[in-house]
Design a protein that fits this description.
This protein is of the alpha+beta class and 275 residues long. It folds into 2 domains: 74 residues, Phosphorylase Kinase, domain 1 (2-Layer Sandwich); 190 residues, Alpha-Beta Complex (Aminoglycoside 3'-phosphotransferase, Chain: A, domain 2). It is 39% helix and 19% strand. It has 10 helices and 11 strands. Strands 1, 2, 3, 4, 5 and 6 form a 6-stranded antiparallel beta sheet that branches. The protein has a 3-stranded antiparallel beta sheet with strand order 7-9-10. Helix 9 packs antiparallel against helix 10. The model has no long low-confidence stretch (mean pLDDT 95).
Length: 275
């Protein structure tokens, strides 16, 4: 694998800052001619290792565009000024932020998913199957919570609508503003499933404070906007979000990280579910 410096030289990029080692790989900002760009080398064992394939599939529709790529490394257009959708929520403009997220979803969910592209990504069933290893509970996540999540995953996975390549981690920190193109997604994981699955990540974000998202009135308002703008079945959105909240909590607990965000979301949604 080439280094960031070698890639910059290969692609005629002038680096404008230091190379950052992030949890998902190496990142550096620069300029190529008049354009602000981003160089990224994802870690091969990270869940964003397939972000290049996902971004090429999205092809600039609702996401940053890949300009060059080689062996997993990417040169991408940079969203400028690049402030995150989180800023709108913190400023008390949550409805506006939810509407913007819906617009990004509508652009990302392209119908032209080929079997060759789909084969490179996990399915929502693959992700959900990981819950079975923790039936006895893990950390603060009870066995009862996990059993309910397994049941919900199975029911929804077996009754999905048209499948798309989803971003897989479409929360407020992963949507940035560009002066020319509007709101754009970054850092996709890539997962194959129905569109309603995509909303779960946004319902357990954008901050580490559950009072900003794990509140019934906030959840209901966000889902109402999703229904209005995307025509997704609100019950399926809610049920997917519950199951994903539990899965997110399990994943984090298994990695010795704080599972509060996902668990708080699952606990807030559970009383809202039909029996």
């Amino acid at each position: 694998m080439l280094s960031i410096a070698e890639l910059a030289q290969r692609w005629d990029v002038v680096l404008t800052g230091t190379i950052v080692e992030s949890p998902t790989g190496q990142v550096a900002f620069g300029r190529r001619g008049p354009k602000d760009v981003v160089l990224k080398i994802p870690k091969p064992d990270d869940d964003e290792a397939n972000s290049r394939v996902a971004l090429l599939h999205f092809n600039g529709h609702g996401a940053v565009r890949v300009i060059e790529h080689v062996m997993g490394a990417m040169l991408m257009e940079r969203a400028t000024p690049g402030h995150a959708l989180t800023d709108l929520v913190v400023a008390g403009r949550d409805d506006e932020a939810t509407a913007a997220l819906c617009d990004v979803v509508a652009s990302l969910h392209r119908p032209d998913l080929t079997a060759a592209v789909a084969a490179q990504f996990p399915s929502v069933e693959d992700w959900g199957s990981e819950l079975a290893a923790y039936r006895g509970g893990i950390g603060p996540i009870s066995s009862d919570m996990i059993e309910r999540a397994i049941s919900v995953f199975a029911e929804l996975a077996g009754s999905q609508g048209p499948r798309r390549l989803l971003h897989g981690d479409l929360h407020h920190h992963n949507i940035l503003y560009d002066d020319r193109l509007g709101w754009l997604a970054i850092d996709p994981k890539g997962v194959v499933g129905e569109g309603a699955y995509e909303i779960g990540a946004a319902l357990r974000n954008p901050t580490e404070d559950p009072a900003m998202f794990a509140v019934r009135s906030i959840i209901e308002r966000r889902i109402a906007i999703v229904r209005e703008r995307l025509r997704f079945d609100p019950d399926r959105v809610l049920r997917w979000a519950f199951a994903q909240g539990a899965l997110s909590a399990v994943w984090r607990a298994a990695d010795d990280r704080d599972p509060t965000r996902g668990l708080a979301t699952a606990e807030a949604i559970r009383p809202m579910l039909a029996s």
